[in-house]
Amino acid sequence: MAEIRDIEVVVFDVLGTLVDEPGGLRAALREALPASDDAPDDDAVDALLTIWQQHVEREQQRIAQGLRAYANTETIDAEAAGHVADHAGLTDPATVARLATAGQRLPAWGDSVAGLERLARHFPVFGLSNAGRTALPRLNAHAGLRWHQALSAEAVSAYKPAPEVYRLAIDAAGCPPERVLMVAAHAWDLRGAQAAGMRTAYVRRPVGDPPTGSDVFDGRFDGLDDLVTALTAR
């Protein structure tokens, strides 16, 4: 396990990297589906999750392409919940409204809270998330994530991997980008950070986007414990 040197600030992606986004959305979908003698079928839940995820991805891409004005995650999640409700036949307004905020109730991975706490004794630790500025603090509170600073991409009306999102973190760090480490479970996110001049570390998660053979990151880790050890080894 290689050590990563000359880092002043560590920046974490949140969705997927520190919280289980698909798992949290699945739980919310199961809760929203009508009660019956049998639990909702896994395939049915996964189909609804796909509808949700495809809507979010499509709309964020449309925003990036200039085909839609910026809309924050609260707006896009509410749209996704509406599509899911139409598909599943959900008609209770309170149920649909709660489903729309499912992205604010995502569980942390088992090593996330303790890993952040350990690392924060040695470095300023930032969160950098596509989650909107209202959703992000609620998400952090629910998952128990504690930051020195949590940055929402909404501040620059864009979504990662837009370069202005990474610049937001670099500016907040107050040091050269090559002394700022971006940590994510998504190779596409790390590529965006690299393009902005940041250092990069991949952390493997079950729901992440693994590196390809052509990706060259400063470190690759099986979990946060390994990452923290590499960063704090002296």
Automatic annotation (TrEMBL):
Lineage: Bacteria, Bacillati, Actinomycetota, Actinomycetes, Kitasatosporales
Keywords of the record: Hydrolase
UniProt-listed SUPFAM superfamilies: HAD-like
PANTHER family: HALOACID DEHALOGENASE, TYPE II (AFU_ORTHOLOGUE AFUA_2G07750)-RELATED, HYDROLASE, HALOACID DELAHOGENASE-RELATED
InterPro entries in the cross-refs: 2-HAD (IPR006328), HAD-like_sf (IPR036412), HAD-SF_hydro_IA (IPR006439), HAD_sf (IPR023214), S-2-haloacid_dehalogenase (IPR051540)
Lineage top rank: taxon: Bacteria
GO MF term list: hydrolase activity, acting on acid halide bonds, in C-halide compounds
Presence of keyword Hydrolase: yes
Transmembrane regions: none
Record protein name field: Haloacid dehalogenase type II
Species assigned in the record: Streptomyces botrytidirepellens
